């Protein structure tokens, strides 16, 4: 079974939430595995729950708006012209797999936010994908070197199935927060739930605290 739900992640069983997680820890990676996770090894599971969008680099646009001083939009070429940044580390899916030692390339959210200049009252972000998917995050989880707009993974351009041409990367949270096909970041003064959060998933999604579902 493929388990990297569209467009971020999907509950293990459609239509209901289950806490019956499968998998086991392998090797000596226990200190790097959050609770309830297993090492997926060389794999990178994917699952498409609806049509995967085709977004060419010619069509690509990324906007930051809402509670900012300077609403900003970048084309693909403009995004590529910004100072690049690399994340090297692990990712964790709420469906219990973790993938170690990935290398991602893109642009730090700090660079984009600096240009847009969040207003003092901005505290949350509703992330939008070109597919219509949304997910919510505290603004603090996207600042200070914690998040990227990424277009390359392990030395290769992101495929459509993994969110290409560009996706959000927030590796310290469960991977449904790393929205595929990212197109807009809307800054708000209040928390507004996204797709999976409205369907029972946790509003923040910290793997080390096992924040899988509302109430965790």
Automatic annotation (TrEMBL):
What superkingdom heads the lineage?
Bacteria
Q: Which parts of this chain are annotated as the region Disordered? A: 1-42
What is an example of a Pfam family matching this protein? Oxidored_molyb
InterPro entries assigned: OxRdtase_Mopterin-bd_dom (IPR000572), OxRdtase_Mopterin-bd_sf (IPR036374)
Q: Which SUPFAM superfamilies match?
A: Oxidoreductase molybdopterin-binding domain
**Taking every annotated instance into account, which residue ranges of this chain make up the domain Oxidoreductase molybdopterin-binding?**
51-196
Kindly give the PANTHER family that the UniProt entry links to this protein.
Answer: OXIDOREDUCTASE MOLYBDOPTERIN-BINDING DOMAIN-CONTAINING PROTEIN, PROTEIN-METHIONINE-SULFOXIDE REDUCTASE
Stated name of the protein: Oxidoreductase molybdopterin binding domain-containing protein
Q: Which organism is it from?
A: Nocardioides scoriae
The taxonomy runs:
Bacteria, Bacillati, Actinomycetota, Actinomycetes, Propionibacteriales
